């Protein structure tokens, strides 16, 4: 068994690769930049969902022991019509190379059959492969992205359109751990997993936790949806992505992200990471 990890430079793919590496399970990271973007010591290849000529490239890789790709972790950063390219690649991998298990990273708003990644989910069901769709909520690791990280570090603030809305922020470590089980368990999950953190927090509470850990005040600046959209665009976020992120924040402000479950513990056997632990692990990033 060997596992192909698309989105090879992403938060979850790299963490998932480390889990596979620790378990001595062959894997291959695939991204547009290939080896140039991969962590040292990890196998990687060039691959682009928007270029069907690259679909064959991962399958040409020579794994130790002659292993072949039997499962694929699917990630797409395409905002407009992601189902077209993802479904085309799924069909290629399934029909031409016999890949029978696919684990797709989506989001909590995605639903079976709905436009976007919901169409990929539906396609996996329709063609009868083994599958799992991961639907995580807000990533804790967003606080480590350069824009937000420097805002916290240099200006002591976080700006959002979430108002007082709460969400169960989750760590990419926990998403990767669920993905690992979905890819490697003998029995396919054949379902979706809504992946949530262990506590409901709003940004005022998150700022307070950062303040307590860093020993200085971090404030949450509450913006309107329009202000937030312009704020993101002014910091170089592409217009379509800025609109999507703002929409999600406005939904959170209205209570649309309030939910709880025990999926991480049920699937992995351990509870999900809380925000205090995340802050302590990454404190140096904001100092």
Layout of strands and helices, then pairs:
Blueprint: E1 2-6, H1 11-22, E2 27-31, E3 44-46, E4 69-74, H2 82-97, E5 101-105, H3 117-127, E6 130-136, H4 146-155, E7 157-160, H5 172-184, E8 191-195, H6 203-214, E9 219-222, H7 225-234, H8 239-253, H9 263-268, H10 275-282
Parallel strand pairs: 1-2, 1-4, 2-3, 4-5, 5-6, 6-8, 7-9
- Net shape: globular
Average pLDDT: 95
Secondary-structure element series: EHEEEHEHEHEHEHEHHHH
- The low-confidence runs, each spanning 5 or more residues with pLDDT under 50, are none
Estimate what percentage of residues fall within beta strands.
15-25%
Structural class: alpha/beta
Helical content, roughly? 25-40%
By oligomeric state, this entry counts as single chain
| Beta strand count | 9
CA-based gyration radius: 19 Å
Biggest sheet overview: 7 strands, parallel
What is the terminal separation in angstroms? 43 Å
* Strand arrangement in the largest pleated sheet: 3-2-1-4-5-6-8
Count the DSSP helices: 10
